[in-house]
Amino acid sequence: MGVAPGSLTDEGTGHVFVLGMAGPEQESGRGLLIVDALATRWGQRQTGGRFTVWAEVDVRHDSAHEEFTRDFREEL
Fold it and tell me: Where are the beta strands (DSSP E) in the chain?
C-alpha cells in the first residue's frame, strides 16, 4: 500500500472553501467534493493571500478500491 501526496496553490478568494459550497447553476466550486471522495486525508491552509489544498491519496490496487473507484465514476 502506498500514498501519493499532492497539493495545489492559487491566489485564493479570501475565504476558506467548504464542501458543497457551489450552487447547482455554478460552473465551478466542486473540486473539493472530488478531493474529499478520493483522498485518504486532505486539508487547506492560507499563507499570505494564497491558498493551498493538499491531499494524500491511497494508491493501493485491490478489488475493494477498484469497486469504489468504479462506483464513484458512475456517480459523475
Answer: 3-10, 41-47, 50-58
Name the domain count of the chain. Answer: 1
Structural domain range at position 35: 29-76
What pTM was computed for the model? 0.61
Between CA 72 and CA 57 the distance in angstroms is 15
- The rounded Cα 26 to chain-centroid distance in angstroms is 18
What does the block give as the cell for 22?
A: 457551489
CA distance 28 to 74: 20
Side-by-side strand order, sheet with 3-10: 3-10, 50-58, 41-47
Are the beta carbons of 19 and 32 closer than 8 angstroms? yes
In a domain, 6, yes or no: no
- Per-residue model confidence as pLDDT tens digits over 28-72: 767 788 888 889 999 988 887 788 889 999 887 666 666 766 666
